[in-house]
Amino acid sequence: MDTHSSKYITGDAAFAVDRRGAIVLWNAAAEKMLGHPASEALGEKCWSLLSGKDTYGNQHCCKHCPIREMAFRDEPVNCFQSSYKTATDQYMPFSVSCLAIFEKPGNEMLMHICHPENQSLKDGRGQAPASSQPGALSQRETTVLALLADNISTRSIAAELSISIRTVRTHIQHLMYKLQVHKRCEAIEVGKRLKLI
Length: 197
Hints:
Beta-Lactamase; 8 helices; 5 strands; elongated; alpha+beta; five-stranded antiparallel β-sheet; about 200 residues
């Protein structure tokens, strides 16, 4: 895919990758926040340049990125937290939203809009409020997560809790967002690590 020369103006850092993970767009805000000029970023593999890490310090940028694969399968990607490596080899935390753009076959790209973590959300001790911390699940979300961990299907969870399948899916989406994961198996793993289940 050819790199895009159009201007994408936003106050947030924004970059886009093609299906292979090559960076095809890098805006001025990304240059400023991450320190890499567009001439250096364009054409690079996102995982090589940015080495994105999740909130637990695990590297999640990779050749077979689940976020990229979900987006190009027409699956919605929830907003997530990631820290990207800057030109000075330091990590900067962002809240990231993704937008899959299908201009024409063979010319698709996944836009990442990266908003710096909001320090104003922290309380006087420098801690995020409990409701925004990873693992702050409601009682119903915790129940759904425990049933998922027991390998219970969505339909069976709905029957057991006397709620609709759609409501179960909504609970699953919410708990995955709160745990900052993109797959059910990751939610179960994080839930166990945080001793939620």
